[in-house]
Design a protein that fits this description.
Layout: E1 2-6, H1 10-21, E2 25-29, H2 33-40, H3 51-58, E3 63-66, E4 77-80, H4 95-108, E5 115-119, H5 127-140, E6 148-152, H6 162-167, E7 171-176, H7 179-188, H8 190-193, E8 199-203, H9 205-235, H10 240-247, H11 269-282, H12 288-309, E9 318-322, H13 337-347, E10 351-355, H14 360-366, E11 373-374, H15 378-382, E12 387-390, E13 409-412, E14 425-428
Parallel strand pairs: 1-2, 1-4, 2-3, 4-5, 5-6, 7-8, 9-10, 9-12, 10-11, 12-13, 13-14
Antiparallel strand pairs: 6-7
Helix pairs in contact: 1-3, 4-5, 9-10, 9-11, 9-12, 12-13
Binding site for NAD(+): 84, 122, 271, 334
GO molecular function: NAD binding; UDP-glucose 6-dehydrogenase activity
Binding site for substrate: 212, 257-261, 265, 327
Length: 431
């Protein structure tokens, strides 16, 4: 199938490379010329396990990138993978989606034959039909249903495992208006749907839009509940990991997302929960439970620093922070809990030296005024430190030697694999 993808961010690039890997002819439309050149050179513009090899394998054959929207006319289906950034009030900024849709519509005005436009970006219910569709109709001068159709196909990609998540998903959700649109998407995903472990969910457009939000809101709520239970367990002197391991044996609950600690971050959970809360309020409903979910999550970094302050006078102290990305396996620092830890340490007068295997350049570029020293190794970060905290559970931190610290005080926000007896003070955030 000939496929065009508008947007070469995290989602668009991953989807493009994976669809090419499945044998489709894929063109990635992107306004950033540097990203276009990077993909066409066979390189990955983002850090993601398994992505670089797939781009290298298919660039120049069945995967290419362009800045020319006219290229979509030679494809059967277009996937909109455009950013939907968060506004100050938590609502979505649809400006990139509107602009990209308009340019797509203008390009489709000169196309002969039918075309399916699929929203893959995470958007609130009603966006596909009430925002995207009217813009397409006007720009293409073609009524929806008379040559152009719209559909919703949410993504469920996790940083660090995005390629596997796309190729071996738990579910594929197709939100369509017509049987023809559903048939087109089933053909697009046929190699994936051949996997017996992948569930096919076919529903209407608005339900498909809400499924993504419900999915992430549920997982974020589970993590915050686990952290709340972990905080309570620590007050009782109990090990939350032992408690929650037993709880996870209940098949109604499962053992996934049961690691208590510093909390959730990244590009999905914070933005999606905020958008759902803002959307609910626009509809006249106060989402009190989701408000509490966010409140618990926001408090965890402060608790971590407070625990460290119980053992180290932070004013003027040298503190090593291990991990800056929001999770291991990615260089993404968006809404990383580690950044909140840095802020709280700075507020208390500490001198911070940090190390992360892949995310330090992103922190330098995004926060150039941050008063922070970067180390070229975990050992260098720990040298002469009065205390240390673990903010991201990179495998490189397991069995790490903490020799060289002025005082071997560690507050662990992620439960890495270390011998607690090797420390003067070892504190787990929730254990």
């Amino acid at each position: 199938m000939n496929v065009s993808i508008v947007g070469s961010g995290y989602v668009g690039t991953t989807v493009a490379a994976c669809l090419a890997d499945l044998g489709h002819e894929v063109v990635n439309v992107e306004i950033d010329e540097d990203v276009v050149e990077t993909i066409n050179a066979g390189d990955a513009p983002i850090h993601e396990s398994g992505l670089e090899q797939r781009i290298a394998d298919h660039a120049g054959t069945n995967l290419r990138a362009t800045t020319d929207y006219a290229e979509v006319r030679d494809t059967d289906v277009t996937l909109l993978c455009l950013p939907t950034p968060q506004s100050e009030d938590g609502s979505l900024d649809l400006a990139p989606m509107r602009a990209g849709t308009e340019m797509l519509g203008e390009a489709l005005a000169d196309k002969d034959g039918d075309h399916l436009v699929v929203v893959k970006s995470t958007v609130l219910p009603g966006t596909t039909e009430d925002v995207v569709a009217p813009i397409l109709e006007e720009a293409a001068a073609t009524p929806i249903g008379e040559g152009i159709d719209v559909a919703m196909n949410p993504e469920f990609l996790r940083m660090g495992t995005a390629v596997t998540d796309f190729l071996e998903p738990d579910k594929v959700v197709l939100g369509t208006r017509t049987d023809d649109a559903a048939a087109t998407l089933r053909e697009l995903y046929a190699p994936i749907l051949a996997n017996d472990d992948t569930h096919l969910v076919e529903t209407d457009v608005r339900e498909a839009e809400l499924i993504k939000y419900a999915n992430n809101a549920f997982l974020a709520s589970k993590v915050s509940l686990v952290n709340e239970l972990g905080n309570i367990a620590k007050e009782y002197g109990a090990d939350a990991y032992e408690v929650l391991e037993a709880v996870g044996l209940d098949d109604r609950i499962s053992s996934r997302f049961m690691r208590s600690g510093l909390g959730w971050g990244g590009s999905c959970f914070p933005k999606d929960v905020a958008a759902l809360r803002a959307g609910a309020r626009e509809q006249g409903y106060d989402p009190d439970l989701l408000d509490a979910v966010v409140s618990v999550n926001d408090e965890q970094p402060r608790r971590l620093v407070s625990l460290l302050a119980d053992h180290v006078d932070l004013e003027g102290a040298r503190i090593a922070v291990l991990g800056l990305s929001f999770k291991p396996g990615t260089d993404d620092i968006r809404k990383s809990r580690a950044l909140d830890v840095l802020e709280h340490l700075e507020e208390r007068g500490a001198t911070v030296v940090a190390y992360d295997p892949v995310a330090m350049d992103n922190v330098r570029e995004t926060y150039p005024d941050l008063d922070l020293e970067f180390a070229d190794s975990p050992k260098a970060a720990l040298e002469g430190a009065d205390g240390a905290v673990v903010a991201t559970d990179w495998p490189a931190f397991d069995d790490l030697e903490f020799d060289g610290m002025r005082r071997k005080v560690l507050v662990d926000g992620r439960r890495i694999d270390v011998d607690e007896d090797d420390f003067e003070v070892y504190e787990g955030l929730t254990w």
